[in-house]
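step 4 of 6: structure.
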Amino acid sequence: MENTHQSSPSESSSTKQPEKVVLVGNPNVGKSLIFNFLSGSYVDVSNFPGTTVSISSATYKQFKILDTPGVYGISSFNDEEIVARDVILQADRIINVVNALHLERDLFLTRQLIDAGKKISVLLNFSDELKRRNIAIDHNKLSKILGVPVIPTSAINKKGFDRLDEAIEKACVGLRNTELQKLIDPLAAKTHSNAEALLILEGDEEISTRHGIPCGTPDEREIIYIERRNAVNQIMSDVEFEDSNKGKFFNFLGRISLHPATGVPLLLVILTILYFFIGDFVAQRVVGFTEGYLGNYLFEYHLKSFVGNNAGFNAEVTLLDDEEEEIGTKVYAFPSGLNADAQLAKEFKYQSRLPNSSTHFEFHNPYVKLFVGEFGVISMTVTYLIFLLLPLVVAFYLVMAVLEDSGYLPRLATMMDKSLSYLGLNGRAVIPIMLGFGCVTMANITTRILGSEREKTIAIAILQFVIPCSAQLAVIAVLMSSAGFGPFVLYSFVIFGVLIALSTILNKTLPGESTPLLIDLPIMRMPRVDNILKKTLFRSYGFMKEAGSWFFVGALLVGVLDITGLLAAFSNFLSPLTTGWLKLPSEASSAFIMGTVRRDFGAAGLFEMALSPMQKTVSLIVITLFTPCIASAMVMVKERGFKEGAIIWVGTWIVAFLIGGIIAQIFV
Amino acid sequence: MTALYSIKKGSTVVVKQLPGGTNKIQMIRIGITEGQMVFCLERLPGGTVIVQKNRQEIAIGADLAKQIVVEQV
């Protein structure tokens, strides 16, 4: 660590290491388009050591290009800023992307980078939109004031990209604040790094501990920041000219999306569209095809019958008519596999390949079962991950990318701020909460964007306790519609009550304060299709890479519990609680245990039981509240640490059985 | 002198005092300093305030808006 930070550009270029070019910018400046252009098709996405923020890197000519999270400054306010800071400290050259329409906001970071003494070039992005809005920016003058190259670009139509090489090559140390530099110089003599000396002056505790130099006080930082802000305001009045009156800048969609009379209807329209797209189209039709046909009918069947060639199994082939009603079941026994009984195998293959047939394999050998059985590590996990989860994850990331690139997402966060503040969160938490209805595991990862540890804890707890994921929602919807209106009201009331109670308790007991909402609202615009697709692709890939293995670990764990008989023992242990306290059939306990593998399994097990409407309500309450699937538990532990993860995990079991039981005792 | 929280939509105010700590630093970074003139673009039910500074639109949560002292112009 120390060495890489202290090496000056000349030292690193003398070694074989490629020079590091780091892209830095505020959120919504079009940085990703520039990174995508430079990186070409091969991008390495990795977690920054010691944190959960991922950074992308790629090779461009003789350089190593690194992307950083969008930040307003390098002040170490959150994980993203800490990562951006550490990547910037290692940079040999910096390409600072600024949004020409938000120059006033963006130049704060630019000035901070210049004061840090790094070699930089500024890309004035969105510059073709300036003309349309009657704004002129004198970029030559800006370049003179800053002392670094300023190149107008328009990432959306790749204008100015022919000058990216020039931007990298001509990056230079800018004109620093001379007064500030007098304070930096003596410190830099000790740290051997101008950038680190600046950060120490600005009160960065981590850097100051690293060097054993006391850091600046908050007041000193404030003075530096105010001076920098004033310098930026001065630059703005020197380089920007507007033909239209400043207040008249009008963005119709942006306005109506926040106006109380139109914002709420617009929000409802958007949510309805999302419901039909994700809830109906993707979750039902697309997943019906990918999971039912590609996953079960093709992948699992061929995998299992291939293994079944030489391994003993019993099979049950169910035929369905066009209305999905069962019209017949055939049972086959292959004690030594398909190859041993060619005659019967032929018939089995004919029957099981009829359209509308579904085949259930029951392997005899426990190890075979572990890998390709009903809950097999290979069979079930692949179907679940690739054919069920992936379409949903892609759909959710797609929606997120559209909302994000159109500029609606920050407005949605603003609209939801007050409601979420009752839960001890701010409007930004709408993102993980919304994703939770798709996949809680995916949402757990997204809690990283929240501003404080307490908010992350509250959001993670809410996700584990009360937010049903899409796999589970489908089953809840079916069971609830058969239970009637009264039970539905009771169910909603109980879940909502737990949400309020949980967040109130956490909000009151967790130390510290939640961060208030303070966000910049970008201009609403038509999103670019290729950028959205690329974003969706990268994020889906990133999620699969990060969380995918946990689904395998989870399946392996449950598989081992299953073949060792521990699963059955645990289920037996729970069954008195299920029958006596929850007043449910004893088989419900195994449905609950299966719910720890995948929450929808738990709910699906309930289909088979004859339950009264109130029993359905009780069991759905238990299933919703209680422990999330294994993958989400693993990711939660990774995000929040073992202790907190374990408390939440155990907590969901206790609350689920406690609340479910109380409802059962009163209503059943 | 009043809180940003209690200003009306459509009014122009000068920021007189920001709350302390990181909130202040974040506001300075985003562009709001003491002495800055802002225009109130929208008031949302629940108290969230949306202010405009030149072309920039910034949403400020109710709790933060209560701690910002402004003066009407």
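step 5 of 6: annotate
 - The mean pLDDT of chain A is 86.
 - The CA atoms of residues 314 and 333 of chain A lie 4 Å apart.
step 6 of 6: archive
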